[in-house]
Structure prediction request, 142 residues.
Amino acid sequence: MTDDERRAIEADCTRLINRYANLNDAHDWDGCAALYTEDAVFRRPSGGDPVHGREAIRASFRARPPRAQRHVIANVVVDVEGPATARAFSAIVLYMGQAADDGGLPVQDGTSPLIGWYRDRLALTPDGWRFSERTGGLDFRP
Prediction:
């Protein structure tokens, strides 16, 4: 693999991670789920049982109570393993709150911000790079 090919994979995987955060903040659960492979495994940073499979991941997002949120993703490092596999690490900061009744800015809740990380396994599919495994964790107690 050439340096240019490796850099292209790194850029595509970093874009996937950032796109996921944007779709998540927009509550586009179909878009979020589409970024996983059919047999993916997802473990939320806040804990709980792993979620297996794209459809179960979609359902888990839809089951969450609505909230205002903004994910900030930083320190993304992608390690290319081969032409169709990679691993990544990223730091996250999640701000959460309740929508304001007057349509103004949301009010931050008492558990926000959450600070943590994701460790990802990524796979190249016919639809592009996707998460085959996404495991999150928290660095500080809420």
In short: The mean pLDDT is 94.
